[in-house]
Amino acid sequence: MPIIEVNNINKDFMVAKRETGFLGSVRSLFKREFIKKEAVKDISFSIEKGEMVGYIGPNGAGKSTTIKMLTGILVPSSGTIKVNGIVPYEQRQKNASNIGVVFGQRTQLWWDLPTIESFELLKEIYQVSDARYKQNMEIYQEILGLDEFLNTPVRQLSLGQRMRADIAASLLHDPPILFLDEPTIGLDVVAKEKMRTFIQEINRERKVTVILTTHDMEDIEKLCNRMVLIDHGQKVYDGDISAVKERFGKIRTLVVDVENGEATFDIVGAEVVKREANRVWLQFNRDEISASELIGRITQTHSIKDLTVEEPAIESIISRIYQEGFEEKLVSV
Amino acid sequence: MFRMKLYWTFTKKAFLRSAVYRFDVLSRMGSNLIFLLMWGSIWTALYAGKESADGVTFQAMLTYIVVSQFLSGINGAGTPLWDMQEKVRTGDIALELMRPFDVPLRYLFADFGSVAFYFMFALLPVYILVFLFIDLTLPMSWETWVLFLITAFIGFLIRYCIEMSFSFLSFFLVETGGIVDIFYFAMSLLSGSVIPLWFFPDWLEKLAIYMPFQGIYYIPTSIFIGKITGVEIAFSIATQIFWLLVCYGILRFVWHKASQKVVVQGG
């Protein structure tokens, strides 16, 4: 049985229409017109226990709105949601004990108090037993290195430390489900890596179901097997990440170091996209010409000193889907 | 189920939090004293050497101002209106909706913590000195003390309900300057915090008597100086309890509407 079930949910907001100009503003003082904005349109998905799912889409696609509906802060306009057997917005507080939430953009810790005080407060809020609290704190201290800043007020923490504290705080009550809304935003490479390792570990060892929204495609590539892609409030893709790569990743790049960087290449199915000193980037479609074939053709006219074949990063795939739409790409590739 | 231990934790943490902002406590105490000095001087000038006015001696009047300034120190030590509005504006309050506790109660208990800190380390020592060095009247009987404490506490709760209701109005309004002005006007004038109700013109006194604000300063302070006595005290407490229930009802209603709006409209 899926741990999260979302069926045909919609969320509309009524937004006050702003009139322009002086007369318009006067008019809107007396009579306001509202326009309906559809933030989420007919989205359905189900997630099994222990899955790690990337929930991605461009800004304003409806990611946070969906997460807020799953946490119970927002009521869907229509459709049904079940999280661990509970309808979140009907039993908001009960749902709260089943989920952990991290919003990368804001903290749930008490700003002016030493970090440890926030943990103690959360222990009371979620009625975590002393033994469990102690055990969890030991584990998190070890993996996340909380020791170094437990007695520092939250406002003095670095962003990386704050995020580590925040994620530990969200897991203090052992929720079976974890929502991460941009957990690596603004972090440096090392901090990002630490964060990812930790998420992987709790998923593997505690079977915590993780839903992750992010703009960092490396997060998705390293953490998730499955991704749900939404755009303009609609689901455009739901499935394996490797399948997306398979579908859209036919364009590859061959990077060759040749003796003369000015050399011309006249090969069907491949074109030069970039040159830098003696290095040349050639883009080719795997269906039209294979890599070995291409290399063979180049060696006929040039001597190759070094070469690599670059697979497309998921990022460039996603950005193409954002720009061109999913359906069109399906046809054109 | 009421989880006392949880709310008590909020009280403890808020107490600790106040300890972090020692300068804030000092500066607040400073401004409280400046207001005390100001109103003390104004009333000294108004009495102009007269022994009593409207049946109230100069000494009792001065005591009234000192006690009401003390109470305003207590009432001002919680989460201020602007801070709550800021929490509404940034959406912090909306996030608290997904926590397993009651938001209005959580802030009330946190306020108990910050008030306790301010009371112990600023108000109490300073006002003991004020009473030692200025010739003021103290209640003779212990009953008066007890009644003063009870009415002051009810007054605190009334003020909390009103202030919180005003804060939650910012869920519905973009610009809240007007609301804040109305609140502070009612708080300073209609509550009798600086001018006792008996000096009001008749129509204004009637108006103020029928409003909840007098329960915050006027009733406890008047009991302290012995202006309200006997059966009048029972009547005053009944009025306070009536207003407390009404204001609590309003707070619950506004909070209910606000949280509904958040979940439907996204705040």
UniProtKB/TrEMBL annotation, chain A:
Keywords attached to this entry: ATP-binding, Nucleotide-binding, Transport
SUPFAM superfamilies: P-loop containing nucleoside triphosphate hydrolases
Residues of the signal peptide: none
InterPro entries xref list: AAA+_ATPase (IPR003593), ABC_transporter-like_ATP-bd (IPR003439), ABC_transporter-like_CS (IPR017871), ABC_transporter_ATP-binding (IPR050763), P-loop_NTPase (IPR027417)
Alphabetical list of Pfam families matching this protein: ABC_tran (PF00005)
GO MF: ATP binding; ATP hydrolysis activity
Residues in ABC transporter domain copies: 24-257
Record flagged with keyword Chloroplast: no
Superkingdom field: Bacteria
Keyword ATP-binding: yes
Xref: PANTHER family: ABC TRANSPORTER ATP-BINDING PROTEIN (PTHR42711), ABC-TRANSPORT PROTEIN, ATP-BINDING COMPONENT (PTHR42711:SF1)
Name of this protein: Vitamin B12 import ATP-binding protein BtuD
Organism classification: Bacteria, Bacillati, Bacillota, Bacilli, Bacillales
Name of the gene: btuD_1
UniProtKB/TrEMBL annotation, chain B:
Keyword presence, Transmembrane helix: yes
Classification via InterPro entries: ABC-2_transporter-like
Keywords linked to the UniProt accession: Membrane, Transmembrane, Transmembrane helix
UniProt name for this protein: ABC transporter permease
Signal peptide: none
Top-rank lineage group of the source organism: Bacteria
Record Pfam families: ABC2_membrane_6 (PF06182)
Residues spanning the membrane: 58-77, 107-133, 145-162, 207-226, 233-255
Organism: Pseudoneobacillus rhizosphaerae
